[in-house]
Design a protein that fits this description.
This protein has no helices and eleven strands. By secondary structure, the chain is mostly beta strands. The relative contact order is 0.33.
Length: about 120
C-alpha cells in the first residue's frame, strides 16, 4: 500500500512559480506522475518520471515550463512549475504506479492517488 500527500499549491500571479511536493509512505512506488483537473474538464496528464528519475515525460502544454523530479531517499516527488499561465489553474494530483517503473501519461497505469492540491493562477 502507498499513501500520497501533496502540498505546495496556492495562489500565484501569471508568470510566477510554484513547487508542488508529493510525499509517499509505504513501500517505494515505481513510476510516478502528476495530473491535473480543472472545473468542467477531464483529468489531464502533466508530467511523469521513472523509478530511477532518469526518464521524464511531459505534454507539449507544459514542456519547458514544468519539471518533475524525485528524491527516493526522501520518498518525495516534486513538480517545479515556472512561467505559470491562467490555464494552469486546476487541482493537481500526484499518482503512483504499483508495478510500472517507466512513468507514463496513461492514468490507468497508476494505482495510488493523492487527495489533490489546488493551484490558482491569476492574471
Amino acid at each position: 500500500q502507498v499513501q500520497l500527500v501533496e502540498s505546495g499549491g496556492g495562489l500565484v500571479q501569471a508568470g510566477g512559480s510554484l513547487r508542488l511536493s508529493c510525499a509517499t509512505s509505504g513501500r517505494t512506488p515505481y513510476g510516478m506522475g502528476w495530473f491535473r483537473q480543472a472545473p468542467g474538464k477531464e483529468r489531464e496528464f502533466v508530467a511523469a518520471i521513472s523509478w530511477s528519475g532518469r526518464n521524464t515525460y511531459y505534454p507539449d502544454s507544459v514542456k519547458g515550463r514544468f519539471t518533475i523530479s524525485r528524491d527516493n531517499a526522501k520518498n518525495t516527488v516534486y513538480l517545479e512549475m515556472n512561467s505559470l499561465k491562467e490555464e494552469d489553474t486546476a487541482v493537481y494530483y500526484c499518482a503512483a504506479s504499483a508495478s510500472y517503473g517507466a512513468g507514463s501519461s496513461n492514468s490507468n497505469l497508476y494505482r495510488y492517488w493523492g487527495q489533490g492540491t489546488q493551484v490558482t493562477v491569476s492574471s
